[in-house]
Write a structure and sequence with these properties.
Elements lengths: L12 E4 H4 E6 L11 E2 L3 E4 L9 E2 L5 E2 L1 H5 L10 E5 L8 E4 L3 E3 L3 E6 L5 H10 L1 H7 L1 E2 L3 E2 L2 H5 L2 E4 L2 H45 L4 E3 H4 E5 L17 E3 L16 E2 L2 H7 L3 E2 L4 E4 L7 E3 L7 E3 L3 E6 L7 H7 L3 H7 L13 H6 L1 E3 L3 H43 L5
Helix pairs in contact: 6-12
């Protein structure tokens, strides 16, 4: 059990979750062959994807039939249980299941003894998330087993005081969460305005030409069979889709390398700082520029490069901005989310039509959009700063609550 580095408030108790819990259950997924296990009207069924920013878990989308429970395949937790994500990237996330619930193997359910208020337990487990992460085994996927969960600290006063703390936290944190939500909505709105301005600028241009008439479309190359990428720096970096950022460039921190011998075998498949890259498999449609440090780097087979034929006819930054438009997404088939697109064919990419104007007009459009982007990004940075301040305030309020100072 973690030590508390301050004096316990009068009348408070420090125990472990194993001492204050009446039931711990690790979840399980029913056999997918038994379709009759799934129902639209019975027990709530949860996976880590259902854990959001709110305390109460609600799943109207997916239920589990009592058949899965009756034959012993799945164990059911009583209402007012705390569900804890115990495996995976979101380890430590918690939620309060107000109704009876079942859940998959990545989740552990905890039902507390009568002396513990369920919502108080939710807030405490949210507060000790760093302890949960610290106690998890750092394997391929972080995991904390039942023994580890039982050993987690649990600090609490008498139940009446727990109720008072919950009421205060509900009131304060709800106001903070509402403020954060409004700030996030403002960020979304500003980005929507930028997208609208970008689409508007390009839609006003009537003349159009295909990408293949303005640029060569060339794919990258996979490594020869049996060869692997290396962390050891060589003269030949290898750019992967994983290195593409959302800001239109390459993240240099995780770059991998290939040997001179491998490079000789695939040296035709390099990209220059004068080209534009686009991901065509995996995360499709990410585009951007190659920094000078990676000029001449090898390019993955999951991406293509657009090589401008005549720089007096097409500006590279103009081409990049067009790839961010709704028009480009629609032509590339990226706007349809109903069916996952396994790969963006180079032939389809080649046939996409670009609104085209004079080079001077292209550069003017780029200047206009970049100025707007700069203003919006500055405003976004301010809003993000306010969100971080509010998150820090939440942490401070929780800290005060569990020191008996709220």
């Amino acid at each position: 059990m973690e030590q508390v580095l301050y004096s316990l408030p009068e009348g408070w108790h420090l125990e472990t979750i194993g001492e204050v819990a009446s039931k711990l259950v690790t979840g399980k997924t029913p056999s997918t062959k038994k379709a009759e296990y799934y129902s639209s009207s019975e027990v709530d069924w949860f996976t880590p994807s259902d854990f959001g920013s709110t305390a109460v878990l609600n799943n109207s989308r997916r239920k589990l039939s009592s058949l899965a429970i009756e034959d012993g395949t799945i164990k059911k937790m009583p209402k007012d249980s705390i569900l804890l994500v115990a495996i995976g990237a979101t380890i430590g996330k918690v939620g309060l299941a107000e109704d009876e619930s079942c859940f998959n193997q990545q989740v552990t359910g905890i039902h507390f003894k009568e002396k513990i208020h369920p919502k108080y337990a939710y807030y405490w487990l949210s507060y000790i998330k760093p302890e949960i992460i610290t106690k998890s085994s750092q394997a391929t996927l972080p995991i904390i087993n039942q023994t580890g969960i039982k050993g987690l600290s649990f600090l609490y006063p008498e139940k009446e005081e727990q109720k008072c703390i919950v009421e205060k936290l509900d009131a304060l944190l709800t106001r903070i969460d509402t403020a954060i939500e409004h700030l996030q909505e403002s960020i979304t709105l500003k980005n929507s305005l930028l997208q609208s301005a970008l689409d508007g600028q390009f839609s006003a241009i009537t003349e159009r030409m295909t990408i293949e008439s303005l640029a060569e479309v060339k794919g990258g190359k996979r490594l020869p069979k049996g060869e692997k990428l290396s962390d050891e720096e060589t003269e030949h970096p290898y750019i992967r889709v994983a290195d593409f950022t959302d800001k239109g460039t390459i993240d240099l921190s995780g770059i991998k390398y290939i040997s001179k011998e491998i490079h000789e075998q695939i040296k035709r498949y390099v990209i220059s700082k004068d080209d534009l890259y686009i991901s065509i498999a995996g995360t499709i449609g990410k585009t951007g520029f190659v920094p000078s440090e990676l000029d001449g780097a090898n390019l993955t087979e999951n991406a293509a490069k657009l090589v401008i034929k005549d720089k007096q006819q097409l500006d590279l930054s103009y081409l990049y901005l067009f790839t961010l438009t709704s028009d480009f997404s629609a032509q590339a088939g990226l706007a349809t989310k109903t069916v996952a697109q396994p790969k963006l064919a180079l032939t389809r990419l080649s046939k996409i039509e670009i609104p085209i104007c004079s080079l001077e007009e292209q550069k003017s459009l780029v200047s206009t959009i970049e100025a707007l982007k700069s203003k919006i990004h500055d405003a976004e940075a301010v809003l993000l700063g306010k969100i971080e301040d509010l998150k820090s305030l939440k942490a401070s309020i929780l800290d005060s609550a569990f020191k008996g100072e709220l």
